[in-house]
Amino acid sequence: MLKLIKAVSVFVGTVIGAGIFGIPYIVNKSGMVPGFFYFLILGGVVLLIHLFFGEAFLRTKESCRLPGLAQKYLGSWGKILVMISVVSGLIGALLAYLILSGDFLKILFSPFSDLSAIQLAAIFWVVMSYLIFRGIKLIASIELLTNLIFFSANAAILFFILPKLDLSNVKILEMSGIFLPFGVILFSLVGWSAIPEIADFFKTSPEKRKIKRTIILSTALVVPFYLVFVLAVLGAVGGNISQDTLSSLAPFLGPKIIFLAVLAALVTLADSILVLGLHLKNTFVYDLKLSKRLATAIACGVPFLLFLMGFRDFIGTIGFVGTVVGVIEGVAIILIFKRAKRLGNREPEYSFKAPSLLLYLLIAALILGAVSQFLI
Hints:
The chain is mainly α. It has a single domain (2-375), classed as Amino acid/polyamine transporter I, CATH 1.20.1740. Helices cover 77% and strands 0% of the residues. The chain contains 15 helices and no strands. The N and C termini lie far apart (46 Å). The relative contact order is 0.21. The mean pLDDT is 88. InterPro entries: Amino_acid_transport_2 (IPR018227). This is Amino acid transporter transmembrane domain-containing protein.
């Protein structure tokens, strides 16, 4: 039971990240009713894809991640497409967190510094780049602590703003923004990168049967948490919500609470940047055979260059990443799952019966959602 709890905490911690701060803004643009249905529908779609990925992974003897599974079951074109998606997604996520770090640092240092959000973000990024270059030991030692701080901060936010909840502040439906939430919410729900780690965490075959339960329990925790958070924030703030959420909450939480909340969010951002940055660096080192210095320079330099070039729209960035990565990798996982049913070389600890019609409907839903982003 304890192992299951730990696995669920790892999975939930992977899914719920700094992207949570963009959800209230985007749901306010569409209204709570469309937001609710996006979470309901995309939550179901992502749950199924997580289960498919878990089974495909368990059907494979070789130790590999998504690009390796794509190579095995889809061929070279699948690996190339997934690699492009993985690299693009990591760069986009790093850019999004860099943008958010500037906003949060500005809130922290505005009482005693005239530095702009851009300048503060640049300083922060130099520090993060150095830590990414240093590697895994420094990163791994703080990850558990940052997850604890992050969830404690979100619990504190909910505790202080729930008494200020006024449902009249919550928009029900905004037709002009009805397509907006797709990419952002998809970004906030995806966590399939954690599945291989959870599979490794469960050592024996009987333990690996718990992977399915881990995925289902995690989704059952994440979706309601997001909905309560969004409802509480919008119920307190209403239409004056900012893209980073925390700026809007300052009048409701008071300076001391907002300082602690922003500090906790920054710690989480730092952890996310370190983990993603290291993963991207290692992708270049192990898959493309680049040197450590060059890999670090690309992994840290490209997001920073995009930031300096003016790509500083947090919502637009996570919406793009959620759409592109969620759709490409989601479709790839569905196709991998379909082929692993026939070509897998290992008996899985769980098997999910999914008719071909369901798989095609899921693919269609992802593609139509992506197309809708171009209608905005």
